[in-house]
């Protein structure tokens, strides 16, 4: 097992460091050099033109990627919603043959997700899975499959598969929007150079992160909060899930604007708030973070170096400038590192947290 970890103490850290490669693989060949449009294996131009709404179904970290994809679709003008697969049997909106239901699942074997996929299929929806495992049950049962090409992920805590799912869904959102409009979406031109730069930007974060120092600075806290807006919201949820999963400490993610609707009652000097800034109404997120800071909470801003939040915050995790569609994924790498180092300080069994399995094959 040690041999498989290479120079790293844990698979999780190795997999965090594999993200420049796994993301390059997720993107490779999926942008047509001729016309700069999204090319997806098995999908002819216009393949999605009849789709009038999209439902994304998933659990856990994959649900956070699904939420990211759903927001990307909505922002690209396509009606969509992300649903927890384990709620689907009691909460599914109606579907018809113009509904695309996307099962997002790293393993392709999660029972809750497979059940929801089967339900959607039996009700007549068009189905697709976004998965890491070729030959998985989801890949076999969905009408179509898109593979994220992240390579094997051994750590129970999903890291590189989350970022690859989110990137795959970002590409897919652009493609569905393109097909629906019958012309290239304007957003795509701005996004492509930043997408191409992302693997190198992540290398930069991994080479020079303050995450270890920040994990140790706040290690005696009572609870850890993560906030974000827009595409920063699923990243905040994912930051908190990762943190609780491997440190066994209490953590919660919130939409920034929700803090004042209840969670603020929990905020004290012992509850650091990690605030993710994606460039989507950042001034509002900063105000929300300052409301927590006024109650004594230390604020850790995850944002570019020249961002106004850096002056206000108690600590800073730097991310490079990029498109708002991708900024949350850079922030996510910093949050993965914070969770990892916080768990390491506590000497937790990082790759195999108690009570959890890599793939949950029971309902
Ligand atoms: C996250 O770190 C967990 N491994 C878990 O939430 C996972 O994402 C969930 O069980 C869904 O798994 P899947 O992607 O294989 O369907």
Automatic annotation (TrEMBL):
Coiled-coil stretches: none
Keywords carried by this UniProt record: Aminotransferase, Cytoplasm, Glutamine amidotransferase, Repeat, Transferase
Catalysed reactions, as listed in the record: D-fructose 6-phosphate + L-glutamine = D-glucosamine 6-phosphate + L-glutamate
Gene Ontology BP term (one): fructose 6-phosphate metabolic process
Presence of the UniProt keyword Repeat in the record: yes
EC number of the protein: 2.6.1.16
Entry's Gene Ontology molecular function annotations: carbohydrate derivative binding; glutamine-fructose-6-phosphate transaminase (isomerizing) activity
Function of the molecule: Catalyzes the first step in hexosamine metabolism, converting fructose-6P into glucosamine-6P using glutamine as a nitrogen source.
Quaternary structure (record): Homodimer.
Name recorded for this polypeptide: Glutamine--fructose-6-phosphate aminotransferase [isomerizing]
Native organism: Halopiger xanaduensis (strain DSM 18323 / JCM 14033 / SH-6)
Gene designation: glmS
Residues of the full protein shown: 241 to 603 of 603
